[in-house]
From TrEMBL:
Catalytic activity, reaction form: [protein]-L-isoaspartate + S-adenosyl-L-methionine = [protein]-L-isoaspartate alpha-methyl ester + S-adenosyl-L-homocysteine
Any single biological process term in GO: methylation
A Pfam family it matches: PCMT
CC terms in the record's Gene Ontology section: cytoplasm
Official protein name in the record: Protein-L-isoaspartate(D-aspartate) O-methyltransferase
Location relative to the cell: Cytoplasm
Region (Disordered): 1-21
Chief site of localization: cytoplasm
SUPFAM superfamilies: S-adenosyl-L-methionine-dependent methyltransferases
KW Calcium (keyword) present: no
Amino acid sequence: MGNGALSSSRNSSNRGSQRKLVEHLRRNNFVTKDRAISALLAVDRADFAPTHPYDDTPQYIGYGATISAPHMHAIALEHLVDVMGDASHVLDIGSGSGYLSACFAKLVGPRGKVIGVDHIEELVNTSIVNVRKQNADLLSSGRLHLFVADGRLGWPAAAPYQAIHVGAASEELPRTLVDQLAPGGRMVIPVGAYNQQFLQIDKMPNGDIVRRNLADVKYVPLTAKSLQMNGETASMH
């Protein structure tokens, strides 16, 4: 099992194109909402995954990181799209290749802002190159920003966020990230040490937190840069 995938997934390979891959995701009910489907179609995974971009499996992208399986991208978009509007702020923790950050940027309007953070400088530099291949306007317009930072701390400068995505597992729900979530906002995050759950976290207008388990998953830990670079592969997006 690769990193950043369902514990038991309906993987398949050789989709051949982004459109065929998205049709596979739609047919298997990983994604059903029109806006989420449009975002997946608008950002070609081949610009972000160096090998086998259309396989529904995680792919290694270097520096101890992988780009997660497309079905996990689809699940994240499916459950975050409804809280993302024209002026939304979105935080992508562990932005890795930049793929999911670019999809999020397609879903916010000109007044919106997507912040992708990763603690590996080389990955951030590569992600900027990846986005520029076909979606340079997302960067030049200021709609998408990709920063080198410790994702465990979030990015307070652009908080609060209507949507937060976390691409590696935390043993417990991180209070720091919950605090950066806007009332009415939503976060998706893998939580747990071994038996992990991909949780949807909704912050109610009064600040109460509601949890929902979306799927059983297998992610590596949200960890320090030194541990990742020493071989604890991280599942980043």
